């Protein structure tokens, strides 16, 4: 007698990897739907971050004179690129299962495809922003180095892992409790202030205390590590003075951040798999 299989429960992320063609179809669908009847299309990937950058740069860099950071434009835009990509990936991933309710009810396919596709779409939008960041850093005097390039790669992978793990977890819970969407929106609204995107780290150190547990928690926030990595990759290479301001413990914090991100992926997959059997009836 063959083993009974719970309907609606697939093989998890491994099944997504095996059905990459379905993932590609979902990503293309998301992009087509988002830019349908749009004049700029993918050009919005440049316009939105450019407007956000301009608002913060004028408000903080010019009006409030945030000039304690050399090459502030590169510093600011690098952090915004990371936070914007993470916010888009997590926000869309959280809503992904509910938004694809018709497919969930009518077609059997790995449900993990939906949050993973949302993360991939954010990755598509991230690429042109990284290109603009690299060009701006080169104009500011940045010269690529091996450590910096590895830091940039680590930043992208870490951000993707974080968004995937949290996206799996929150998208599953969102099917049962739609309040999750509103909570995520609130968190994402203040996210840009929870990492050294708009300000230097030493201001937080001065506020919380160098040896305090709150400052240690702030520094070991994986998203803070991702922002520090993009700063090491681009902003730090613009001048020797900037390189000297990169935290010396960044390598150790990066290793810890990857462990945390991997744990979130495992936890998110476990919760998603446990709840996925209820998706069709709840939707």
UniProtKB/TrEMBL annotation:
Keyword entries, A-Z = Antibiotic resistance, Cell inner membrane, Cell membrane, Membrane, Transmembrane, Transmembrane helix, Transport
Task: List the subcellular locations.
Answer: Cell inner membrane; Cell membrane
Q: Which domain of life is it from?
A: Bacteria
Q: Which residues form the ABC transmembrane type-2 domain?
A: 40-275
Question: What residue intervals traverse the membrane?
Answer: 37-60, 72-93, 113-140, 146-170, 250-272
Q: How does it sit in the membrane?
A: Multi-pass membrane protein
Q: Which residues form the signal peptide?
A: none
Provide the primary localization: membrane
What InterPro entries does UniProt report for this protein, alphabetically?
ABC2_TM, ABC2_TM_bact-type, ABC_2_transport
Belongs to which family?
Answer: Belongs to the ABC-2 integral membrane protein family.
By what name is this protein known? Answer: Transport permease protein
């Amino acid at each position: 007698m063959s083993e009974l299989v719970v309907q609606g429960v697939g093989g998890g992320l491994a099944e997504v990897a095996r059905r990459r063609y379905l993932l590609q179809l979902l990503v293309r669908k998301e992009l087509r739907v988002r830019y349908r009847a749009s004049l700029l299309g993918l050009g919005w990937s440049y316009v939105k971050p450019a407007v956000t950058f301009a608002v913060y740069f004028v408000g903080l860099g010019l009006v409030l004179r945030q000039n304690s950071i050399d090459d502030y434009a590169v510093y600011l835009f690098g952090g915004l690129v990371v936070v914007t990509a993470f916010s888009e990936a997590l926000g869309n991933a959280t809503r992904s299962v509910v938004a694809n309710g018709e497919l969930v009810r009518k077609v059997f396919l790995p449900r993990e495809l939906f949050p993973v596709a949302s993360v991939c779409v954010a990755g598509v939008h991230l690429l042109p922003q990284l290109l603009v960041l690299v060009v701006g850093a080169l104009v500011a005097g940045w010269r690529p180095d091996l450590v910096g390039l590895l830091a940039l790669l680590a930043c992208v992978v870490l951000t993707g892992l974080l968004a995937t793990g949290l996206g799996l977890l929150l998208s599953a819970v969102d099917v049962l409790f739609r309040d999750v969407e509103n909570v995520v929106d609130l968190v994402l609204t203040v996210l840009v202030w929870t990492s050294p995107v708009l300000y230097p780290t030493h201001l937080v150190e001065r506020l919380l205390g160098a040896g305090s547990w709150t400052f240690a928690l702030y520094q070991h926030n994986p998203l803070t590590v991702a922002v520090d990595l993009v700063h090491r990759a681009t902003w730090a290479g613009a001048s020797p003075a900037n390189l000297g301001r990169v935290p010396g413990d960044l390598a150790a914090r990066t290793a810890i951040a990857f462990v945390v991100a991997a744990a979130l992926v495992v936890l998110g997959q476990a919760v998603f798999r446990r709840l996925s059997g209820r998706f069709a009836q709840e939707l």
